[in-house]
Amino acid sequence: MFSLLVLMCFGEKLGEDAIKAIESAQRDLLLYTSKLNVFSFAPAITKHLFRHRWTTAFEMRRRQKELYTPLMTAKKEHKNTSINPSVDDPQGDRYVYSYLDSLLDIKLADENCRALTDDELVVLCSEFLSNGTETTVTALEWIMASVVKYPNVQAKMREEIERVAEDGSEVIKEEELQRMVYVKAVVMEGLRRHPPAHLVLPHSVSEEIVVEGYVIPKNASINFGVAEMGWDGKVWEKPMEFRPERFVEEGVDVTGSREIKMMPFGVGRRICPGLGLAVLHLEYFVANLVREFEWREVEGEEVDLAVKPEFTVVMKHPLLVAHHSSAMMRYLAHDGW
Ligand code: HEM
Q1: Alpha carbon separation from 4 to 16, 151, 190 (Å, rounded)
Q2: What parts of the sequence cross the membrane (predicted)?
Q3: For residues 326 and 336, what is the distance between their CA atoms, to the nearest angstrom?
């Protein structure tokens, strides 16, 4: 998943070592972020009181910039030379149009049409990589945990996949996914029951407002209990049960434009810009994993749904599973094993 996002971000296929270095710098900074919350309170003072934290974070960002700079420079050079990807790169595996290309095209209209600075590019690419991978990987782990814990759900998914996907094809195609109603419902139920983010990013109130008798003053920082919304017994029947059928029967709007029953991606102006990509990745990985393998609990290692808050809310005990090739299982079943 990380390699895929690095390709989408920088538009270059990097070697394993380069990807590992970017991933490690990214993860160190991400895990350190919780230590930086102290700076939201009286930063002029806390910056001195917690000087060590400040310099450590600064050093981590410097390391990241060191890794990104050659990639940014190469991209700028490509843009300045008139490379025609279809001629210079007929296989299309060197010059992929990327997130960085779109950032380099930006001109800030209210700041004399200036381009983004290198520091701004580093922060935005870093945000893209961490927001785009940690969340999706966490969601995938939780969904697969439910697939293992509820064999009836897994069997129903496999039946749908075998019915819809073309026989003998290497992977399930995007247009086939669109016809897999139950796979989509499993992904939605996973995001409702185990949203990777239990809160959204902090939002600020632009005008004083009264909500159900509570005054929320202008400029207050507010947040929303995303997980609790998805578990609300007044809205969801038996909310703690993992029952994808509820989405087959009713469907749901996760963008908040029609209703807000769950909001794993936030809603409104600051809704997650990666929503479409994340849902596509989740459906794609879950469907292909279930098509290729049968997933079971390891004997004596029951799937444990305890949570641990990190950058996202992850499984406290990472998923440990046994898997067997589906083709092999069909062969053994056919031979009466
Ligand atoms: C299952 C996967 C994902 C979940 C659950 C998720 C969830 C969220 C949430 C809750 C927010 C905060 C919204 C708010 O503050 O109102 C957010 C913001 C964001 N997400 Fe995602 N996200 C996912 C995948 C992705 C992907 C794949 C990308 C990019 C490739 C991405 C990029 C971002 C960015 C850049 C922001 C910040 C937007 C802003 O500051 O306005 N996310 N995401």
Answers
A1: 12, 30, 22
A2: none
A3: 15
Tokens 């961490």 belong to residue: 130
Q: Which uninterrupted H or E stretch holds 161?
A: helix 151-164
Please give the distance, rounded to the nearest whole angstrom, from the Cα atom of residue 275 to the centre of ligand 1.
7
Pocket flag, ligand 1, residue 277 (CB < 6 Å): yes
The closest-lying atom of ligand 1 relative to the alpha carbon of residue 263 is 10
Q: How far is CA 163 from CA 156, 166, 223, 272, 282, in A?
A: 11, 8, 43, 33, 20
* 41-69 residue pLDDT tens: 788 898 889 999 989 999 999 999 999 99
Centre of ligand 1 from the C-alpha of residue 98, in Å: 18
Query: Per the structure block, which two tokens stand in for 95?
Result: 């010059």
How far away, in angstroms, is 320 Cα from ligand 1 center?
27
Tell whether 125 is in a known binding site: no
User: What domains lie within the chain, and their CATH numbers?
Assistant: 2-116 (no CATH), 133-334 (1.10.630.10)
Interface pTM, i.e. ipTM: 0.99
